[in-house]
Design brief:
Layout lengths: L10 E3 L5 E3 L4 H9 L14 H15 L1 E3 L6 E3 L6 H22 L1
Antiparallel strand pairs: 1-2, 3-4
Length: 105
């Protein structure tokens, strides 16, 4: 049995007769196929210390991400509306990063 993993997408035919996805639809199609948010594809442009601090402050405000008590890590403040989502991501990320390090060595 053959499965279709990608959804049917609207295409346009170019002057050369090549069928291609409409460029403006490409981000939506990719994120739908990967089952992720469109903001995942956003370029965060963290190029300086100030950019990094600004990003951390935004994550603290929106997701409750904050420095741990010892200052050597991060923790999730439970009062944030989106903190359960961030906690889920961290739980999933930890085992995956450990597995990828083990397979790389």
């Amino acid at each position: 049995m053959q499965r279709n993993y990608l959804p049917r997408v609207p295409c346009v035919t170019t002057k050369n007769g090549i069928r291609a996805v409409k460029p403006e639809l490409l981000p939506r199609i990719i994120t739908k196929a990967l089952d992720v948010s469109q903001s995942t594809l956003k370029d965060y442009q963290v190029e300086s210390y100030a950019d990094l601090v600004g990003m951390f402050l935004q994550l603290e405000e929106e997701y409750g991400l904050q420095p741990s008590e010892d200052g050597m890590g991060l923790s999730i403040g439970p009062k944030s509306k989106h903190s359960p989502k961030l906690a889920y991501v961290f739980r999933e990320w930890g085992p995956r990063s450990v597995r990828s390090l083990q397979t790389a060595s």
